[in-house]
Amino acid sequence: MSASIVTGPAQPGDRVPVEVAVGVLVQRDASGQEAAFLLTSRPEGKVYAGYWEFPGGKLEAGETVHQALRRELQEELGITIGQSHPWQQLVMDYPHARVRLHFHKVFDWTGEFEMRERQSMAWETLPVVSHPVLPGTIPVLQWFAAERSFVGPTHRD
Ligand SMILES: Nc1nc2c([nH]c(=O)n2[C@H]2C[C@H](O)[C@@H](COP(=O)(O)OP(=O)(O)OP(=O)(O)O)O2)c(=O)[nH]1
């Protein structure tokens, strides 16, 4: 399976991207600095099953990214998010789909985590130990590395 990051403007003949809301849940340490972030594994039955990603899913008709995130995290993890903060966007081209990923950071949520799709979850810092990570997760780890002045591999190959 090959996947690539799309850079530059759309070209004639490109597939129209599917819009995806992605939640980057971040804990803060005692001094208020950003600390661990949440990764979840893709459930059985989905493409890239078992790969680690940030929780989220496709926007439904008429939804904003925030609304989709709130719904997906309720459905998948059983939590209710408060505010979400737009952070980064990325278009990925996979054999199965072209997706535009809208990453929002989330610092506030309520409820207990329940793995409603029998996925796994892990609070991670750099370098992440969960393996393998989804191709679309790698740029996010690089953004974290830049924000945190982290040097070295962000994950296992
Ligand atoms: N949730 C999520 N999806 C990601 C990430 N990175 C990445 O490339 N993707 C891709 C994988 C999928 O092609 C797409 C998300 O679709 P999905 O199948 O997980 O969404 P969904 O939960 O709405 O799925 P479904 O109801 O259609 O089964 O975005 C990520 O960090 N999180």
Automatic annotation (TrEMBL):
CDD domains given in the database record: NUDIX_MutT_NudA_like
Names of required cofactors: Mg(2+)
Top EC class, one word: hydrolase
Name the record gives this protein: 8-oxo-dGTP diphosphatase
SUPFAM superfamilies: Nudix
Keywords: DNA damage, DNA repair, DNA replication, Hydrolase, Magnesium, Metal-binding, Mutator protein
InterPro entries: MutT-like, Nudix_hydrolase, NUDIX_hydrolase-like_dom_sf, NUDIX_hydrolase_CS, NUDIX_hydrolase_dom
EC numbers, comma separated: 3.6.1.55
Family: Belongs to the Nudix hydrolase family.
Catalyzed reactions per annotation: 8-oxo-GTP + H2O = 8-oxo-GMP + diphosphate + H(+); 8-oxo-dGTP + H2O = 8-oxo-dGMP + diphosphate + H(+)
PROSITE patterns the UniProt entry points to: NUDIX, NUDIX_BOX
Signal peptide: none
Keyword Magnesium assigned: yes
Domain Nudix hydrolase: 17-146
